[in-house]
Amino acid sequence: MLKIGEFSCLAKTTVKTLRYYDEIGLLKPVFVDDNGYRYYQIDQLNELLKIVELRKLDVTLLDIKEVLKNNNLQEVLEKQKLNLENELNKKIAQISLIEKYISKAKKGEFMEKYEAKEIVVPSKIVYYKHGVIDSMQDLFNFVLSAGEECGRLNPTLKCKNYCYVTYTAKEYKERDIELEYVEEVESYGIENENIKFRQDPEIRALSIIHKGKYENLQEAYAYAVNYVKEKGYSISGPIREVYIHGCWDEDNENNYLTEIQIPFVK
Q1: What is the three-class DSSP state of 208?
Q2: How far from chain centre, in Å, is Cα 139?
Q3: CA neighbours within 13 Å on the CB side: how many for 35?
């Protein structure tokens, strides 16, 4: 048997790392004496070599533990290959975005060119549903369920061509997103615990049209907020995301059309 220091020299691995692997149950010594000294067998070098090689591939210690326990090397390697491919695609997208920003920086620009319009949104009768979705991927299903529920309660109620979402949480969250879906209708209808009706008042709003993926909406928001600040206006109500074209009528995310409406006062 080899003392931990001797094993460390042969393995080209620090004693600190070996102690850590022991603590987490990844590579335990074959014997620990009364003084706490750890001893290893020479054939444990092969096990440690496998750990070292897998760590070079950024395989997690938890997955390496599975390999040593269950001998499922191929499964773990295929999983890590997929992880690395996803990470590579993310990096490629980031490089593309950097190149776009470099191009804009040469022109003295940074954000997309948007046009801000000051509009008046008339008073409207609307139904609305408040709720929480797990992520933005669930937005369309929430909107669809709200429409179906309102339709069951009010089968003859006619909707108009105006709907929006407001986000009611005090901070941005990627999960458990609190929101309210609102749709204009011709008249008041029957309510339940989820579907409610109200009269939205007339508002003056800043309108910015965003074409493209929802994940890039922050560019439109940034432009809008800077516009409000430059004009000396104050935001006077919840910001509305008005959906003009989306996954319900467009296959290509780059063709999605969303209007940001920011209520303001001068």
Answers
A1: strand
A2: 13
A3: 4
